[in-house]
Design a protein that fits this description.
The protein is mainly alpha-helical. Helices cover 62% and strands 0% of the residues. Helix 2 packs across helix 11 and helix 3 crosses helix 14.
Length: 285
């Protein structure tokens, strides 16, 4: 980190109190995930990879991000609820919290006070420290729900936002029944830890490294390895230029696995009003 970055984090932490229960939660999950070598099996690794894709690409990238935050497409209500549940299994916070925070991020990109995970405050702040030093305007329900009123009006989404963590219990029971503790450790703990850092890398690394296709008023960049790990989200400069567009890639080689899933839904007649780049440009004009 640069001296400026360290100073920014220091200034922020001096005004905020570290939320120790959150620190303990993440520390415990990382510690349990480190037991993975002692519980390794190829089937358990397969479970982790499958849930990383399901919760990451379908739940977070397609669901929390493109469907709920930016409304880049529409799906039937029953499918919307299923996708919301899958996103909740990622343990990245309640749906209203996640969507509200990300909409604020786009409204004030890299503003050191108004952007929840401003990259201008340094890599580690945008990666994880913003979760440890919790600003009330980003973490108190009565405040952040104002940024996602469409979801806050729905009783199901309100319940899911409050009790998303409880879904880990039935998931853990099913995984234990299928493969014992190895499935639990890989399917919940390893998956969650890897997926957290995968998602956080978009907030941190994709605002620091990579190339720019569009000139935008922030430091968002297209970062190939983040795009591969985060199922297309690493084409971040493209996304910041046209946030409500469903595909993140613009070139044939900008692989966007989440877009492939959207195309499957569209072909099956389950995805409607899918916003494409030309439509976004037209709407901006």
């Amino acid at each position: 980190m640069t001296n400026r970055s360290l100073s920014a984090v220091s200034d922020s932490s001096s005004r905020l109190t570290i939320h120790w229960p959150t620190v303990a939660f993440f520390a415990a999950f990382h510690a349990i995930a480190m037991l993975a070598p002692w519980f390794f099996s190829w089937s358990a690794l397969g479970v982790a990879i499958f849930f990383h894709w399901l919760c990451g690409s379908i739940g977070i990238c397609l669901g929390y991000h493109r469907l709920f935050t930016h409304r880049s497409l529409q799906v039937p209500k029953w499918l919307e609820y299923i996708i919301a549940i899958i996103g909740s299994l990622a343990l990245q916070g309640g749906i209203i919290f996640w969507v509200g925070s990300h909409r604020i991020h786009h409204a004030h990109p890299e503003d050191e006070e108004k952007d929840p995970y401003s990259a201008r405050k340094g890599f580690w702040w945008s990666h994880i420290l913003w979760i440890f030093y919790q600003k009330p305007e980003f973490f108190e329900y009565e405040i952040y729900k104002k940024s996602a009123p469409d979801l806050a009006r729905d009783p199901f989404h309100r319940w899911l936002d409050k009790y998303f963590w409880s879904l880990q219990i039935p998931l853990g029971v099913v995984l234990y029944a299928l493969g014992g503790w190895s499935f639990v450790i890989y399917g919940i703990f390893v998956k969650s830890v890897v997926l957290w850092h995968t998602t956080w890398s978009i907030n941190s690394a994709s605002h620091l490294r990579g190339y720019r296709t569009f000139e935008v008023d922030d430091g968002s960049r297209n970062l190939w390895w983040a795009a591969l790990l985060a199922y297309g989200e690493g084409w971040h400069n493209n996304h910041h230029a046209q946030p409500n567009v469903a595909p993140a890639g613009r070139q044939w080689w900008e692989i966007d696995i989440t877009w492939w899933a959207i195309m499957v839904l569209k072909t099956a007649g389950l995805a409607k009003k899918v916003v494409m780049p030309k439509e976004a440009v037209a709407s901006e004009i």
